[in-house]
Amino acid sequence: MGSPVRTPDYARRAWGLPTSIKEEEVVKFYSAEWEGGNEGQLAIVSKAAKKAGFGDNPALLRQKTAEVVRSIVRDYPIKGELLILDVGAGPGLSALTIWKELPTDIRPKSRFLLLDPSRASLEAAEKVMKENRVNYEVICDVDIHVGRHLKEGIVDILVGVASVHHHSAIPFDLYYRILTPGGIAVFADWHNSIWEHPWRVYRFLEAFDWPVKEAGLREWLESYGGVCVIEPTDPADRQANEDITSFWLGYHQILKESETDLGPNSIWPLEGHRPVVRYVEEMKEVGFSVGSPGIKRMLEQGVITGNPHQLLPNSRLLMVTVGEKTKKEEI
Ligand SMILES: C[S@@+](CC[C@H](N)C(=O)[O-])C[C@H]1O[C@@H](n2cnc3c(N)ncnc32)[C@H](O)[C@@H]1O
Known about the structure:
Blueprint: H1 23-34, H2 39-51, H3 57-75, E1 82-87, H4 93-101, E2 110-116, H5 119-131, E3 136-140, E4 155-161, H6 172-178, E5 179-190, H7 198-206, H8 213-224, H9 235-257, H10 276-286, H11 293-300, E6 309-312, E7 315-324
Parallel strand pairs: 1-2, 1-4, 2-3, 4-5
Antiparallel strand pairs: 5-7, 6-7
């Protein structure tokens, strides 16, 4: 399990944590999970999703992101080149899926910036980018340091596919600043409210079997108390909580079947996932528009059926949220 420090910042009180923890510290807890991994780590996420009966969730998120980006570029005024920043690019599959969906006349004008803290994943990404002749650069760092590498206001399209939840306080303000006016952010992510409360995590843990389960659960209650919270009232939010539990049961199955432990490629529950409504609120707070004319056009054309757009039929587990940094005159 990850540290409770990784859970959403608004949930710290429920965990008995101090309310002021620097994001730099939180990011270290996430780096411990991701920095040492390679492309096999992401493959495990896909495998666990398939074991849980979903199909390839990461691929679903990537594909919808790519469709949204294709729709954006159709009307986007490209000045010289189209700069696309992939936050948490991992082994390059999100960037590649987007690149493949770009109209062929736009591809030569595009430059992909692949940002990730994992050196090994970026090496795998470079191979994929070269094989496909993508114009790219890699930035081996975490997103909160993006300002060390890029000037503000230069990125046309920023995407985060299954990556920006690796935060307690998601730096939407930084993402906003790095975008050019009129630039667009696309966040395709996992959402649920399990990690918001120790009681929900207790119920989550009850679904698993492990040798010292009884003692473990007792210790959990001793540490965090047994204060119950009710499940979300909306069925799609409740389903998201059930779905994330199924995902981790799938992962647990992989662990049991594997002869060795997964080493630096293991993944840990207890994360910064939060209901998608929080993304919308947090994005609006820093200045993003989620209903700009460009986004409305995407809705009219059916590229997205809502903003946020729901990917699974009855569950808000996988969602794509689009925000535009509107130009001054449009505010
Ligand atoms: C689930 S993978 C997704 C990779 C890729 N976007 C894709 O769709 O295939 C999440 C990635 O986010 C990266 N990551 C974690 N914390 C990050 C941070 N603070 N800044 C940038 N990337 C981060 C991890 O190293 C990992 O490669």
